[in-house]
Design a protein that fits this description.
The complex is a heterodimer of chains A (290) and B (437). Chain A has eight helices and seven strands; from the N terminus they run ββααααβαββββααα. By secondary structure, chain A is of the alpha+beta class. In chain A, a hairpin with a 2-residue loop joins strand 6 and strand 7. The N terminus and C terminus of chain A are likely disordered. Chain B is 41% helix and 11% strand. In chain B, helix 2 packs across helix 10 and helix 3 packs across helix 6. Chain B is globular. The chains are: A alpha+beta (290), B alpha/beta (437). Bound molecules: flavin mononucleotide and iron/sulfur cluster. Iron/sulfur cluster binds next to helix 15 and helix 17 of chain B. The site of iron/sulfur cluster has 14 residues of chain B, from helix 15 and helix 17.
């Protein structure tokens, strides 16, 4: 494992001196032009900071000192303000990242479905721990939080593309293939996993023309739809035919298939709290969300 | 079976090009927008109120009422911000929706913007799903090209710009005011409320923040009518929603159904438990921030009121189902790690409290704790709940207090046995003896 860049226990970022080397003139010119495109998307330029940090990573492979300086200059912020933002978000790397970030979900659902075993096997196989990179600079391994694919648990992400229903074997194969430079296809995503820099560029808002690749939905996403097809269930009045003017009354497709209408209690405990003018204190009944 | 599935938003996810504008137009796409542009904005707000649609992002606030809170136009900008940060553990509906049918969201954004007088809308997508970002960027591009976005939409004189913004990894950015700070290029930390976003939101201007599924539900409601929508679901929890089943069940996945369906009904549709000989042990009705339920709660109607009456919250309908092979202490410990990791650090009860909760649970799971630790956990939870600055802190206490309520003996068994009595391989997906051949 290699630890490039320095970080104190409290998480302060010590930017390595070499990462402050100025950009070559042509690179700087291009970055400025691209930054202008990003900034033009927002009514206020500071909103461009997150995409600009993705843009810095697309050039440098992590958030460099020179990248911070460029963002600060473009947005009229101090470097400390930019660093403060960069260190808040987990996708911004404080030291050079591998060509591929491989993230194993070890949040509860995935962990229990086998994510813990995947993590242990892959970590041992690569000889690196969380946020560490293989000596060849190919793979940075991470434990990640829930990535909104629980119906495909256990889930692994490679450069933020989905690898569904993984096993320790499939994931060690995945990292071996990535290290060997083989093209790797995610379960639901582009035709191949792009590099960390390429993906960072997309996240800065520059499309790579791969939107039409890959499926629309995986098998689990379609599970309910398939059950509905098997039983011939449709939404009321919703079968294809453009239902004219909309002020049409509810109409079940048939008596036996009426959508459920359970009686419910009048309990107010779950009533929404977000009413303008409410007291500021959040109460226990506050609706927790995603 | 009394309740049936109602595929509406999920209806054509199996189309080979489900995400394209062409597919969407073949499935009633943008008919609702045409209809909306011929209506008075106030009537659109009224229609949404009449439908009874409640926010699908967790809190269940009535959507039309939220729109109605915007102050009267003062000539300055007003914003719509779509919350596409989906990160609550167990929640996995918005991401597949945007992957499969991003145009539903884009049309909803156009209609909602017209209804509230917004000319620049934002979609804040979590950054860790690059392919969904590609699909959204492409969907917006196609919608501009077809004249559904941009200047003088469909000749109506209405202009709308849409920016799709990628976050960079932080659960707290799903909290609506933290999201706004993040969208302004800052650390994502919650703001004091009031002022509410409706009054002072993005750039301190009147702003509506809504969940992806809430906004995607608007076109079908407009097309088929408020009554059509409120004819589904329960009296106070109207309409349909996507229920996300995960864990130890035969066919995990997305099931779109009227609110008020029960887990028993959903499990039936999903083929039951993965191993019929292993009993359901506990489940979350709406993500990890909602108190857990057990097999006693299989018949609780999954609507806002009934779930609350049974002691939890409907949340995001994220049904994570665990069978008897699962150690509840291990599950709760891991969720607690998550909250400690994601605490934004702004307020003391959550920042310090989650740090201590995590350590205590760690030693309990290893069988190294003491019985008083349970009281200590409950005491810390008591000091967080209702005292934290935002609902993340409250959510962190839910799995702990509810699991101690239902499974206190299991915590004790860890202490008595000097460790976790469960075989963790038995609960994995690939456990050889567990997967029916
Ligand atoms: C910690 C936390 C995380 C949240 N994450 C999300 C999220 O990812 N998506 C979402 O729509 N709402 C999330 N919410 C709820 C939002 O604050 C807000 O209530 C919601 O976006 C409003 O939209 P709705 O009324 O359409 O549901 C979260 C709340 C909290 C406290
Ligand atoms: S409750 Fe937690 S996440 Fe919310 S403001 Fe306080 S420290 Fe931040």
């Amino acid at each position: 494992m290699v630890h490039i860049g320095e970080q104190t226990e409290s998480g302060h970022l010590h930017v390595a001196p070499e990462s402050k080397e100025p950009y070559a003139a042509d690179v700087l010119e291009r970055l400025r032009a691209e930054a202008a495109v990003v900034m033009a998307r927002y009514p206020q330029p500071r909103s461009a900071l997150l995409p600009l940090l993705h843009l810095v990573q697309s050039e440098d492979g992590y958030v460099t000192g020179r990248g911070i300086e460029l963002c600060a200059e473009l947005l009229d912020l101090t470097r400390a303000e930019v660093s403060g933002v960069a260190t808040f978000y987990t996708q911004y790397k404080r030291h050079p990242n591998g060509e591929y970030t491989v993230g194993v979900c070890t949040n509860t659902l995935c962990a229990i479905m086998g994510g813990d075993q995947i993590w242990e096997r892959v970590s041992e196989h690569l000889g690196v721990g969380h946020d560490e990179t293989t000596p060849d600079g190919k793979v940075t391994l991470e434990r990640i939080e829930c990535n909104a694919a629980c119906d495909y648990a256990p889930v692994v992400m490679a450069n933020w593309e989905f690898f569904d229903n993984q096993t320790p074997e499939s994931t060690t194969q995945l990292v071996d293939d990535l290290r060997a430079g083989k093209a790797v296809r995610p379960t639901r995503g582009a035709d191949r996993v792009c590099t960390f820099k390429e993906v960072s560029r997309v996240l800065a808002g520059f499309p790579d023309g791969r939107a039409d690749e890959g499926p629309g939905a995986g098998p689990a996403s379609l599970a309910g739809l398939e059950v509905a097809h098997e039983h011939g269930w449709t939404a009321p009045g919703g079968d294809g035919a453009a239902d004219d003017q909309g002020d049409h009354q509810p109409e079940a497709t048939s008596d036996t298939l009426a959508p459920g209408r359970h009686s419910s209690s009048n309990d107010e405990a779950n009533a929404p709290d977000e009413v303008p003018g409410d007291a500021a204190a959040p109460g226990p009944a506050k609706g927790a969300g995603e | 079976m009394s309740t049936t599935l109602t595929p509406i938003l999920t209806k054509f996810w199996d189309d080979p090009q489900s995400w394209s504008l062409q597919t969407y137009e073949q499935n009633e796409g943008y008919q609702a927008l045409r209809k909306a542009l011929a209506m008075a904005p106030a009537d659109l707000v009224q229609m949404t109120k009449d439908s009874g649609l409640r926010g699908r992002g967790g809190a269940g606030f009535p959507t039309g009422m939220k729109w109605g809170f915007l102050p009267p136009p003062d000539g300055g900008p007003r914003y719509l911000v779509v919350n596409a940060d989906e990160s609550e553990p167990g929640t996995c509906k918005d991401i597949p929706l945007m992957m499969a049918v991003p145009q539903f969201l884009i049309e909803g954004v156009a209609i909602t913007s017209f209804a509230i007088g917004c000319n620049h809308a934002f979609i804040y997508l979590r950054g860790e799903v690059v392919h969904v970002y590609r699909r959204l960027l492409r969907a917006v591009e196609e919608a501009y090209a077809a004249g559904y976005l941009g200047k003088d939409i469909l000749g109506s004189g209405f202009d709308l710009e849409v920016t799709v913004h990628a976050g960079a990894g932080a659960y707290i950015c799903g909290e609506e005011t933290a999201l706004l700070d993040s969208l302004e290029g800052r650390r994502g930390q919650p703001r004091l409320k009031p002022p509410f976003p409706a009054v002072a939101g993005l750039y301190a201007r009147p702003t509506v923040v809504n969940n992806v599924e809430s906004i995607a539900s608007v076109p079908p409601i407009l097309l088929h009518g408020a009554d059509w929508f409120s004819g589904m679901g329960t009296e106070k929890s109207t309409g349909f929603g996507i229920f996300s089943l995960s864990g130890h069940i035969k066919r995990p996945g997305q099931y779109e159904a009227p609110l008020g369906i029960t887990l028993r009904e959903l499990l039936d549709m999903a083929g039951g438990m993965r191993d019929p000989n292993k009993k359901l042990k506990f489940w979350t009705p709406g993500g990890s921030s909602t108190p857990i339920f057990t097999d006693e709660h299989l018949d609780v109607p999954l609507d806002f009121e009934s779930v609350a009456a049974a002691g939890s919250m409907l949340g995001t309908r994220a049904l994570q189902v665990f069978d008897e092979t699962t150690c509840v202490v291990r599950a709760v410990e891991r969720w607690t790690d998550f909250y400690a990791h994601e605490s934004c650090g702004k307020c003391t009860p959550c920042r310090e409290g989650t740090y201590w909760l995590k350590q205590i649970l760690d030693r309990l799971e290893k069988g190294e704790g003491e019985e008083e630790d349970l009281e200590k956990l409950l005491d810390i939870c008591d000091n967080i709940l209702g005292r934290a600055f935002c609902a993340l802190g409250d959510g962190a206490t839910s799995p702990i207090t509810s699991s101690i309520q239902y499974f206190r003996e299991e915590y004790i068994a860890h202490l008595a046995g000097g460790g976790c009595p469960f075989d963790r391989d038995a609960s994995s997906l690939f456990a050889k003896d567990n997967v029916p051949a």
